[in-house]
Design goal:
This protein is α/β, with parallel strands linked by helices and 450 residues long. Helices cover 48% and strands 13% of the residues. The longest helix has 19 residues.
Length: 450
């Protein structure tokens, strides 16, 4: 990595430059912030490692000046005056970590390795304004129905705040897409957007993934790991499928949200984190609270701003518009033209997989529909019900509760996906866009034997 090192203490500066160079990094070391700024304006660096207390200009002012020149460059602070106030200010300004002198060089090297492995380059290559405008354009992809307009009208206010948001919606409704828009339209747009799927992690791994761990914290922990909360400092952390987070971890998560500080597994140092948290759930958390599967206090902490994304079956007027926008992204300039029969079939289908299922179908049509003309016959294979099951239609009011209808639709979708995958659970999970572990649990829930 190309490192801009700023340290006024000569012995430490020379020592760090030597050790970092030995580790394979390219180091440009400076004793004064003014010369470091000149270097930043003339060259490109992957990370800045800077002292805070320096004559003439402190590290915070240096950070602001460097960000004006190189927006998004990661900054690591180091200081002998380690106070919580300085740490919080550093995180708010966008520092990725805060090291208190004296520290082991291995700790800094481990942090640099994490920064090198993190996929930040593509995310930070465009200026914040460009990313925000791109997300503004994608707002339209969510739909223009009255149900969606009520959500979209609140977006500017939601994005401008720094409060926690709980996004509730079925699988495939676009929860991550909405979270990215909230991030990109807010004041943290120039910071990282980090997502973690709680369902994809075991109880043994989720704590380390969220909060990080120290070297030697457990068997196999051969180096320090920076968790998602630290990586998201100065930006947004999306906790996807929060309904799947284990109860023991819920207690620790609540404490972190209250204290705005984490403690790595195996560590004894409280590390302040300046993060906006967006949580997403496919289930009604209130019901999980009543069932004793989700902590009530954590639910109230997360549910400051609730946003529910309605499924496609509740807004059929959006389907054709969303289909057209998806097609423009995947058809390489060609336009899909649906016959009247195809349009009627698309709008009458229940879309249990929502926008994700619609996107998968569009990708298939781009390949299979000749000259972009889509007949009803092209759609029936996708929408045909599995053997022994009734066709999908938009649910009509009946004595059957909406919860029962949703469960029936979900079960039919699972059966159809498994059959289409020839009984291969891994392929079925890919078709559904869910983790294999989630598919396994759902098959067990509905007693589907494959």
């Amino acid at each position: 990595m190309r490192i801009l090192l700023v340290e006024d203490e000569e012995i430490l500066r020379v020592s760090l430059a030597r050790e970092l160079t030995r580790a394979g990094h390219m180091v440009d070391a400076h004793s004064r912030p003014a010369s470091a700024l000149v270097a930043a304006s003339e060259g490109v660096f992957d990370v800045v490692v800077s002292d805070i207390r320096m004559p003439g200009m402190d590290g915070f002012d240096l950070l602001e000046e460097i960000r004006a020149i190189r927006a998004g460059v990661p900054v690591v602070f180091m200081t002998a005056f380690g106070t919580v106030r300085d740490a919080v200010r550093a995180m708010r300004l966008g520092a990725v970590d805060y090291l208190t002198k004296p520290f082991e060089v291995d700790e800094l090297l481990a942090l640099l390795d994490r920064l090198h492995d993190a996929p930040k380059a593509a995310r930070l290559s465009a200026p914040p304004r460009g990313r925000a405008l791109e997300q503004r354009a994608r707002v339209e992809e969510l739909g223009s129905s009255p149900a969606m307009q009520r959500i979209l009208s609140d977006l500017p206010l939601v994005a401008a705040s720094d409060e926690m948001v709980l996004i509730w919606g079925e699988t495939g409704t676009g929860k991550e897409h909405l979270a990215q828009i909230i991030h990109a339209l807010g004041e943290r747009a120039d910071g990282p957007f980090i997502k973690v799927s709680c369902a994809a992690l075991s109880e043994q791994l989720v704590e380390s993934e969220l909060f990080g761990h120290e070297k030697g914290a457990f068997t196999g922990a051969d180096r320090q790991r920076i968790g998602r909360f630290e990586r998201a400092c100065g930006g947004t952390l999306m906790l996807d499928e929060i309904d799947d987070i284990p109860l023991p971890i819920q207690v620790k998560l609540l404490q972190v949200l209250q204290d705005r500080a984490i403690e790595r597994v195996g560590g004894d140092r409280s590390i302040p984190v300046d993060v906006r948290v967006l949580a997403a759930t496919k289930l009604d958390l209130e019901e999980l609270v009543e069932q004793g599967k989700f902590r009530r206090d954590l639910y109230y902490r997360l549910n400051v701003i609730p946003m529910r994304l309605p499924p496609l079956r509740e807004r059929p007027e959006d389907i054709l518009d969303i289909l057209t926008r998806i097609a423009k992204r995947h058809a390489r300039g060609e336009v899909l033209e649906l016959t009247d029969g195809a349009k009627a079939l698309v709008q009458s289908y229940a879309w249990p997989g929502n926008v994700r299922e619609l996107e998968n179908m569009v990708k298939r049509l781009v390949v299979l529909a000749p000259n972009g003309r889509v007949e009803a016959a092209h759609l029936r294979s996708h929408m045909a019900p599995p053997r022994g099951h009734a066709p999908h239609t938009s649910p009509a009011p009946s004595a059957e509760g909406y919860g029962d209808q949703m469960a029936r639709v979900e079960r039919d979708l699972l059966v159809r996906a498994v059959e289409q995958a020839g009984g291969n659970r891994t392929r079925a999970a890919i078709l559904l866009g869910i983790p294999a572990s989630t598919l396994r649990d759902k098959l067990k829930k509905y007693a589907i034997d494959v």
